[in-house]
Design brief:
LCP family protein, globular, LytR/CpsA/Psr_CW_biosynth, seven-stranded mixed sheet, two-stranded antiparallel ribbon, transmembrane helix, alpha+beta
Amino acid sequence: MTDPRSTSDFDRLFYEDDPGAPSESAPGRRRPRKKKTGRRVLVGALILVLLAVLGLGAYGFYIANLYDSGKQEVTDEEAFGGARPETSGEGMNVLLLGSDARDEDVDYENSRGFRSDTIMVMHVPEDRSGVQIMSIPRDIWVDIEGHGQAKINAAMSFGGLPLATSTVSDFIGAPIHHVAIIDFEGFQALTDSLGEVEVESEQSFESGGHSFQEGTNTLDGEQALAFVRARKNFGDGDLQRNRNQQAFLSGVMNELISRDTLSDPTRISGIVRDFSPYMTVDSGLSSGTIGSLAYQLRDVRQDDIEFFSAPIGGLGTSSDGQSYLSVDEDELEKVRTAFAEDTVGDYAAQAETQHL
């Protein structure tokens, strides 16, 4: 059987940097990066904080202070390019974004040269009956306002966080109400706070000096970081990484909502203390907002949290030689209808796993 990575499209799409990406010296960039930290970023962790807050009880004020003092915050102008959209009966959509830098001096409003390698949208329905998290592959080909068609992860480098937010909003056909950016290393800290996390892997592979078996793996923080970062190990690259990240989040949430965690205020405070410094959120995601939402989600359990992926049509090649993932337009219309009508849970329940 031919290794799919031997084909040029797979090789360019999953194992090289994006051709034609704006360089760090691109004209119009407001501020050069002072250093390259080498830190990678993963998204999806906001839901972990929401669920952790469920067990706060009398410790709520203390935990809120831990969260507020630990997180970094961006203004609505930096996150949305203007006023933050208000929710109006269609549920809440939170953009969970990964970027290749989270330095304190990053100007997210004009983050030219930075890329959002991992993208998810968390949907919380109006009736708060569950949570749905959709992964959007970074190489999916979309329209980016003012720049024509490009890979969706280029929006951050073209126009900063506001353009990334509006591009994802256009993609799902619904408003983005909040934004959270999370550093990969926060997942190592989170896992170590929990002690360990059980993760189901679809296949065996090696990454970062660690070996993972098909089936159940018990991970410490360092192993978790290697697990969620791995991409070049797989035939369909970023799609498998998305599935691994979803598997990891599922394992973490299972541990977070366990009786041992929720009944231990000291453990919860340690989780929030260790994890919040790796979060950058919009000004609307204060501890008060999260605490209120967490209370509304108090009856949500593991089976009420669903993961799915944006619909993929196949591989394509742009006129300038970039390999990309095309969109299944018919399925995308169903996704947009689900977001518009607050029926994402129904769509997620029947959505097929995306493979190439």
